[in-house]
Design goal:
Largest sheet: 5 strands, parallel
CATH superfamily of the largest domain: P-loop containing nucleotide triphosphate hydrolases
Number of helices: 15
Strand content: 5-15%
Helix content: 40-55%
Shape: elongated
CATH class of the largest domain: Alpha Beta
Strand order of the largest sheet: 2-3-4-1-5
Distance between the termini: 51 Å
Structural class: alpha/beta
Number of domains: 2
CATH architecture of the largest domain: 3-Layer(aba) Sandwich
CATH topology of the largest domain: Rossmann fold
Radius of gyration: 23 Å
Amino acid sequence: MLFSQILGQQRAKRFLKQAMSREKIPHAYLFTGISGVGKTSTAMALATALNCQEPVDYEGCGQCLPCRQMVSGNFPDFLIIKPEGQNIRIHQIRDLNRSFSFAPALGRYRVCIIYQAETMTMEAANSFLKALEEPPPGNILILNATEPLDLLPTIVSRCQKVPFQPLMLQDMTDWLVKSRGLDQETAMALASISGGSLGLALKMCDGDFLDKRQEWLLRLMKLVGFSKEKALDVAFECAREDRKKALGIPESGEPGLRDMLSVWESWYRDLLVLKVGGPEELVINQDFSHKLKKTTESFKIDNLIDSLLAIEQSQQDLRRMRNTQLVMEHMVMSLNSLGRSG
């Protein structure tokens, strides 16, 4: 992975190249931002550039042994630590600390990415803090996290922070059209729905997300006109589908309940944007713009806000592992009531 291959993030790439030009590489970086915007790719590009034998403009040449090994995933001085299950555990950090006892095997720097660093257990975080307090030479740690607030303040204070922004809508659209052969409308819909995350857009593109999204939005549009009894059936159906997914039916990796709630949230957000007279380019579900404009007429602003709050509360409850069926019953009945009283 080279800097030139990474979409967007010009400020972050420029900052890292300037650090290399001054030959003052911090021993620890904290890359922050939503998932799928290039944090891990940029960390790989940095590792490639730092260990390249013939770098050009602080970019890996792609031809020398370290560059070729980085491409093949066999570079011995590049490590990635990922969560085991839900968390990064203390034994993983202890193994990392032991590796610091040795000099890099081939390159000038050993580069280690801590993926989803916010998932470190308290014991792992405290063990990791020791490495930050006494950084061994020739080692660079790159922590990837969504929010600095999710990490210990003592860890954050010892890292050079590099923020990553959501990607530009048009840049993502153009890339999806060119690299994935999508039509303009589909590419723009994926770019909008993913919230500036190319990684998420690619997952949606490779799966059946677009078909499921259409199904979810049609279900939501019908919900407003349903009786309470029919609305309750919708809640049962949603919970039942999610339960099947949790059991592996259908196979994991397919869109689930949280994806559906994100789509529903985007729908109400679009309705609110149009209701208050916001610019149409802010609409996420561009391919449903005609239906959105028609639906907006039947809603009050307060009801749209309350609908968004109901979905947000449900998302929080699901993250806290609350009873799925009860959560969906409460949310669906709220949306049904707010829609009928709009």
